Amino acid sequence: MSNEINLLLGRKTQPPSFLKRRFLFHSLALGLMFIVSFASVVIFILIALTPLPSLKEREKDEMKRLSFYNEMIGELILTKDRLTEVNHILKKRPTYSLTLETVRKLLPASVSMDETHVNEKVLSLTVSSTSLISLDSFLDQLTMTNSDLKLFRSIKLVSILYNLDKSKYTLTLEVI
Amino acid sequence: MNNQLKYLLRKITLGYYSFRFSAYFSYATPLLLLIVGVFIFWLFIIPQLYSWFSIQNEIDSTNRKINIIRQNIAYVENLNKFLVDKDYLTSLNALPGDKDYIGILNSINKASSKSNIILNDYEFNLGQITIDKQSKQKLSSPTSIFIGLSVEGNIENVSRFLFEIEHNLPLAEIKSLNYADGKGEILLTFYLKQLPDIQFIYNKPVTPLNQEQHSVLQSLHQWSGQ
Predict the structure, then answer these.
(1) Cβ within 8 Å, pair B195-A76
(2) CB-CB: which of B163, B177, B213 is closest to A87?
(3) Has the ipTM of the complex gone over 0.85?
(4) Cβ contact (<8 Å) for B166 and A83?
């Protein structure tokens, strides 16, 4: 039959550019199908072969091993807690014994400490001596020691009294 | 109504056959495949890929936790239990979790015997014997027991007494001192602090004492006579 009277166009009579485009489209569709299938299989295998369940089991076993030492770990934690608080207290706590001892050691032999009062970080001393020179020497020693050791913020001379009956000088100081 | 329906059906049929015998019919199947492929890729492949990455992150995190737990086990296994117990008891003696009257009395008696002062009658302020729920919440910071003492002795002995009290366990602070003519009134406070709830997160490293804590512990051991 002649192609000239055939009303329906056959495939072989379609233009080459059309055929090329159609071939490309088919290839694209098949390629995408192949990629999707391949990716599904690969991801399925990767997820199935993951070692996560065995790792979780191992984690549980290690935790069980660690739990045998719970008592020791508890003591360690409590010790640290106590030491942190103790350190904090020791830093804030005033050390009056050290202060008092330092001042007492500065007293010359002829000077005696009659009264001592400690309250709210104020140390109040009453010392007496028959000699003003001894008292003066004590004051000098106190101020010199304080400038070296920085024990007090201030040293205040509250009063100097002379007791006629006892022939004694009494000095009252406040150190802060 | 029936005529409209028939008309619609005929239109659809006509449309189908026009497309069926057109040149673009050969594009229909691959186009459909492309749409389905993109659909499957977007809805299933990509989420599965994210899930795989999150599994990898979970694996890394689990490995890290296992390593930390093993390090903790190795550290604790190497500790001397006797020393850990000793440190714990010393730190607890220094700052008791509850009112330690025996410790306080021992501390006062020990200090007075070392300093050769005469200890007269003294008083405690007991405070609450039992701790209710509301008070428990307020006990997160150290509290104190106040003790008033009357002592007799020279200033050297009194000074020594104060030194012994300050360097003994449980921890004490001298609040006030009034000394005159060989007699003194001393107000002391002894510290205590409620023990906290222990919170141990198993996958956090157990760390040893830092230098400051170690130094404080050495002082406490010295003061407790160990």
Answers:
(1) no
(2) B213
(3) no
(4) no
